[in-house]
Write a structure and sequence with these properties.
Length: 500
Amino acid sequence: MATQEKTPVENAQLKDIISHAKEYGFIFPSSEIYDGLQAVYDYGQMGVELKNNIKNLWWKSMTQLNQNVVGLDAAIFMHPLVWKASGHVDSFNDPMIDNKDSKKRYRADVLIEEKAAQYENEGDKARGDALTAEMGKLLEAEDLDGVRELIIREDIKCPISGTANWTEVRQFNLMFSTQIGSVAEDSQTIYLRPETAQGIFVNFLNVQKTGRMKVPFGIAQIGKAFRNEIVARQFIFRMREFEQMEMQFFVRPGTEMEWYEQWRDTRRKWHEAIGIPADKLRFHNHDKLAHYANAALDIEFQFPFGFKEVEGIHSRTDFDLTQHQELSRKKLQYFDNDLNEEGKPYGNYVPYVVETSVGADRLFLMVLCSAYQEEEITEGDSTKSRTFLKLHPALAPVKAAILPLTKKDGLPEKATEIFEDLKYDFNMIYEERDSIGKRYTRQDLIGTPFCIAVDHQTLEDNTVTVRDRDTREQVRMPISELKSYIDKAVNFKSIFAKLT
């Protein structure tokens, strides 16, 4: 069995974030007691709350805020011809190259992209752009020898061995296959889906007819996908088992670019609304388009290891529905009544598709990297460092912590009463161990926006002290106001308001 590969950490900040994620229950290496499994991770008790909040926000942003977008949950196993129609069986490959000295395998295109990023960081963006453009032409022409020559010409070395002793470049299919059937001789090869989009396409008519949907309309889905990645690096950025959040928006042919631009702007605004700084985001237009697209771009975030894709916006034309229609011999067309109202004849057509596809795990990593803060604070005559997660309150795993000042004098009982009242509305923590300062620190480290201290004055006038995570400021308020105070900060409405 493959073990968790020990690769060099590209950046000291990323190393700190990875360590923090494990120590405070966000991300664990999978099967760690057996030395792990390469490129597979488990979400811990804090991580699963944060990830669920991210997914829930995305889902509501798509389906609740848009009357013409509905949801779907398609099966992971699909008929193998689905992947023949989509092109994955024949062309879902990555170019791989091995270093003969380190025995490590790399994606050839990623090595070249990282070299281009190095040029850009050194102030020579033109050289970096020229390099990626040249690589794109070579890959489009399937000139793998040319790709290898490009790597050697640019003096790209293996980060492990430090040498440029490379093998030839080969194509590597990324799909996992398995067998289905009760006995071996009757079994059939099927695939673990490498993307969630095809489940939407094959259900296009089911959703359209049962939901009486009119073009334009969208179908959203969150689900697991699987890719046998050649190289797994950069923590959860590139994994073999991951989660996608995709929405396929079906439009009338000829209107796709209008919708492409609208969803491009809408999705960037969404990332900024959850607290991602605008200067940490950028659009990257594709020079080399996928076989199904007539326009494509990435929304990239500046991770500690550079700008990398978080979300893709693609105009997929009618490729997918047409392919499935031809191979299945079932019509996947839409009868557009509205054409007649516009003075055009009624007609059937295969809709064009605009896609937004975001990786839930990459989005999680982006949120975590953006939230991770280290600062120097002064308390009295001393200065000390402080680490905290500046998560948007709506995404924070825990919304508030109830902290009795002491474990006696009736304070735990009063604190428990407050906790019991609020736990039905918010994910809460009750804690009474250690000093109040240490408890504040622990909550800062997991990103809890509010700490509610219950002291002796609480027993007298039913007021508590509420500490803000980001400013560390404390305010006194009645217990009766806690629910509305917390809700104002953590409700998704605070994000939705920025999207309209």
